[in-house]
């Protein structure tokens, strides 16, 4: 490698020229339509470069653009995508992805499909879509459409298309099945796991939570079971999933995955910043030996197929980007540290922080407002968004 390693320049509390911009538009079948009416929805600054860029959702265009490695700059043909159907799988880093999508929707004033469960238990979960009707999600003012689905649900391609009607980008995330199994077990058993720290005892298979854990992500993707018997052909099932989704993020390569997402959606670096969410603190004291790992792996067959296929696909895409991509990942991790430092510590002292321009991004600011949403837990954020969506609906239900 001839290139020298990138040095992250830490700049805090510098005076910046800060452009506040308010953008008002909502999704429609034509992509986006201008609408100067509703102003009660969240207003935030959005990066100036997003302005005036036409949406081009053609598949060819996506492919043509996979090599663009910088934020959108004048002259580069690249159009930001706004319509996204995200399958939020359990225990796989998906809450962090949802947070990214909620914030993207807020900044760009897009319509989120939210469960019609204001103030009810599990109000942030859409869940099973077998009996989905229009009344399952919060309504929008007449003539508007949903742009983004990011709440938890069980995958059904037809329903996803119905919710996000305008050529959605299908996105999901998978996690290494053994890790995910353990994470699921600890989350659901609230740390009461027999035989700590070696949790995999002979009796474990009889436990309901372990049985569910073994079915794993395949349940989120819509695999059908009778007891532990598969009712769909697993190969066809996995084949369908990997062709349905435009991108399957891999939790073990989270930052790499997000940078690929940024390229494919023609987003900016600011659009993919995050602070990790929903990390399982109870999982600290566990151990598996090689035999335990094999036992668990033997149980999670469908997940293994799904995972290895998704991972191979992702790594191939990364490989095509070449060794320079490592520099970009390194830079991104540095940016994430700056964001976290500011949101956790700096926010008490400065009203914003500036992320400097680089080979891969334009300069941008992170404000207290950004941090509020970056740090907000999902139930609170979805609850907030539900109230706002409801208010907009009641105020503008007739379309003006
Ligand atoms: C960002 O911080 C600078 C310096 O503290 C300040 O002058 C500027 O008004 C801030 N911008 C916003 C949007 O808060
Ligand atoms: C979208 O991009 C594709 C491929 O680059 C191009 O053929 C098509 O004309 C574009 N459509 C619009 C509306 O710009
Ligand atoms: C991506 O960029 C690299 C380096 O600029 C180039 O060698 C490669 O051919 C490009 N790939 C595609 C698919 O355009
Ligand atoms: C869907 O509706 C049918 C008929 O009312 C009911 O039997 C079934 O349990 C429902 N499925 C789910 C997942 O709620
Ligand atoms: C599930 O399995 C049981 C026992 O093998 C069988 O009796 C039942 O008909 C099966 N149900 C379905 C929906 O396939
Ligand atoms: C795969 O997709 C095809 C076409 O949509 C469908 O007919 C088939 O039932 C699916 N198979 C599985 C196992 O999901
Ligand atoms: C895992 O499955 C393989 C093949 O079915 C079997 O040979 C092996 O003994 C199993 N391992 C464990 C630890 O159960």
UniProtKB/TrEMBL annotation:
Q: Which keywords, in A-to-Z order, does the entry hold?
A: Glycoprotein, Golgi apparatus, Membrane, Signal-anchor, Transferase, Transmembrane, Transmembrane helix
Q: Biological process GO annotation list? A: glycolipid biosynthetic process
The annotated topology with respect to the bilayer is: Single-pass type II membrane protein
Q: TM spans, by residue?
A: 6-25
Name a single GO cellular component.
Answer: Golgi membrane
Q: Which Pfam families match?
A: Gal-3-0_sulfotr
Q: Member of which family?
A: Belongs to the galactose-3-O-sulfotransferase family.
Indicate what this protein is called per its UniProt record: Sulfotransferase domain-containing protein
Q: Which organism was this protein described from?
A: Lottia gigantea
């Amino acid at each position: 490698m001839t290139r020298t390693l990138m040095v992250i320049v830490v700049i805090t509390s510098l005076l910046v020229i800060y452009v506040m911009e308010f953008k008002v538009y909502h999704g429609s079948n034509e992509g986006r339509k201008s609408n100067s009416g509703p102003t009660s929805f969240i207003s935030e600054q959005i990066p100036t470069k997003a302005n005036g860029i036409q949406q081009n959702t053609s598949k060819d265009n996506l492919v043509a653009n996979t090599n663009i490695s910088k934020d959108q700059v004048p002259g580069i043909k690249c159009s930001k995508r706004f319509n996204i159907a995200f399958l939020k799988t359990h225990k796989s880093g998906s809450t962090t992805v949802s947070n990214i999508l909620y914030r993207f929707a807020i900044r760009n004033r897009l319509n989120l499909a939210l469960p019609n469960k204001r103030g009810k238990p599990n109000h942030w979960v859409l869940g099973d879509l077998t009996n989905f009707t229009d009344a399952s999600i919060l309504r929008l003012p007449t003539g508007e459409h949903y742009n983004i689905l990011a709440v938890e649900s069980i995958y059904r391609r037809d329903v996803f298309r119905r919710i996000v009607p305008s050529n959605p980008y299908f996105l999901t995330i998978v996690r290494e099945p053994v890790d995910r199994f353990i994470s699921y077990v600890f989350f659901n058993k609230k740390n009461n796991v027999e035989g700590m720290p070696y949790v995999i005892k002979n009796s474990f298979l009889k436990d309901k939570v372990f049985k569910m854990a073994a079915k794993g992500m395949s349940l989120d993707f819509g695999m059908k079971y009778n007891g532990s018997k598969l009712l769909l052909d697993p190969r066809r099932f996995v084949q369908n999933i990997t062709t349905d989704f435009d991108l399957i993020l891999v939790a073990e390569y989270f930052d790499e995955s997000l940078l690929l997402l940024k390229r494919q959606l023609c987003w900016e670096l600011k659009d993919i910043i995050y602070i990790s969410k929903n990390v399982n603190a109870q999982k600290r004291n566990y151990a598996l030996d090689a035999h335990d790992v094999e036992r668990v792996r033997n149980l999670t067959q469908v997940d293994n197929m799904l995972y290895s296929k998704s991972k191979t696909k992702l790594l191939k895409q990364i490989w095509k980007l070449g060794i320079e991509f490592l520099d970009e990942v390194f830079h991104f991790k540095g940016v994430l540290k700056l964001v976290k430092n500011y949101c956790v510590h700096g926010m008490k002292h400065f009203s914003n922080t500036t992320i400097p321009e680089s080979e891969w991004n334009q300069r941008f600011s992170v404000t207290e407002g950004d941090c509020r949403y970056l740090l907000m837990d999902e139930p609170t954020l979805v609850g907030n968004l539900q109230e706002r969506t409801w208010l907009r609906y009641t105020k503008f239900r007739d379309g003006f």
